Amino acid sequence: MSATISTTLFPTTIAGSLPKPAWLAEPNRLWAPWRMRGEELQAAKDDATLLALKLQEDAGIDIVCDGEQTRQHFVHGFLDAVEGIDFNRLVEMGIRNDRYKAMCPTVVGELRLRSRVHAREARLARAHTTRALKFTLPGPMTLVDTIADVHYGDRVKMAFAFAGLLNEEARGLAADGVNVIQFDEPAFNVYMDAAAGWGIEALHRATDGVACTSAVHICYGYGIAPNIEWKATLGSEWRQYEKFFPALAKSRIDQVSVECINSHVPLSVLKLLDGKDVLVGVIDVATDKTETPEQIADLIGAVMRYVPQEKIIACTNCGMAPMRREIAAKKLEALGRGAVLARKKFG
Fold first, then answer.
1. Is residue 205 situated within a structural domain?
2. Cβ atoms 270, 258 nearer than 8 A
3. Is the dihedral of CA 93, 99, 101, 104 positive or negative?
4. Residue 59 sits in a domain of what CATH number?
5. Rounded to the nearest 5 degrees, what angle is found at the Cα of 73, between the Cα atoms of 101 and 336?
6. How far apart are CA 188 and CA 94, in angstroms?
7. CB burial of residue 186 (10 Å; 0-12, 13-18, 19+)
8. pLDDT tens readout for residues 51-66
9. pLDDT per residue over 239-291, tens digit each?
């Protein structure tokens, strides 16, 4: 089964993750422990993936994804398949420029993929939806910012090693029938100068020869306390993106996902992404309050001052993994209804 990208005005999608069912993992938290093991766990992950697809389709989401139901964490879901990493050699690190402290595994040798990482869930999703399918992978810069190293001795060198592995998996996903591959790079808004240079070049390596649409997701993080506290220190206008959006506009990446609703990102900054599809975050993942269709349509209308309407994709600000499942479902429904209203107002 295959599909093409929707030609509908203001198509909808999500940043990637959805809450997991309580029977699969402990709810309302990141790094939620699995409820089962072995073959039973694998079957449960398959079931959760199909439920995630159904939830999105029922809400009117045009470009669906697997909801990251098979991964405990968006970074470690990829690292688990990589040789050269010692998961028992944990190092406490400050990541995202010391925004968090985390116990991180260590790169101890040459990085290699043991096997395909996400073939099972990608093929399962492709077989069970006729809609365009998106799949998410961690970006190279974010990977190196989330792991210790005693082998490469250089963040850039290690990032390009990871980019090569990401390229292997991305080529496989494209062959599996995935329409959009999105690289999640929250590190881009922390290391802006590097993002404009080797960060984008590492993404180019990751997307080299990949026969589908490419996207990069940049945001201020999940709606968890450390992120909310950090955002409160950023001032009344978040203009950090000005430092690297011009370089992104010149890049070979097709789409850019940006946090917009209830953020302090001036919408005028989006002009700097000229030529790119812009995934406009119209759903706030840091609050349980559900957006109204009118709020969503109005924000889309405001973005149209800076982005051509045919380049606008309505999205969530970030992943919804830590949210209550019923709240996430309501927000998906609002996203679908808001896009419908925007089409009526501006189509």
1. yes
2. yes
3. negative
4. 3.20.20.210
5. 120
6. 16
7. buried
8. 999 999 999 999 999 9
9. 888 989 999 999 999 999 999 999 888 999 999 999 999 999 999 999 999 99
